[in-house]
Amino acid sequence: MATPTKPEVWLTGPLPDMPALLQPVAHALLQAREEVNELLQGFPEDLLWEKPAGVASVGFHLQHLKGVLDRLFTYARGEALTRAQLASLKAEGQAIDQQRPVNFLVEAFNAQVHEALEQLRSTAEHTLKESRVVGRAQLPSTVLGLLVHAAEHTQRHVGQLLVTARVLRHGVPV
To answer: Where is the DinB-like domain (predicted)?
Structure first.
């Protein structure tokens, strides 16, 4: 008999104090956090910046996951990016000098998910259709569009990260 696995986050019911229309965004972010933490537990530090077959490294994905959540949620608040956020964007993909960089990057992503969840909790549903602009080109979006894209983009990069990490861990030739 197979060991029962726990259900995906979206099947665990509504999150307390989360606006109903933002539940799917919150569920997607929590699912991403679970998957990243589970797969990268004990991930070899020496493989963090490897690019098998030229794809983005696990380290890049971790930096990008944190950064994209920070940037998209900033736009959703109607704010422009700060110099620090722009510098962080430019540095994505560069190796960091930490004693335990995998844990450092995973914890930074976890903290960003926590911040995102707090912002979701405080987002009034009546603001979801409000216009927002994105980037230097001031491209049009809405609060809801930005939040949904943040969840979708996070899921996409988590999928790429998971495949890259498995390939590197299991020694598939590059």
So the answer is: 29-161
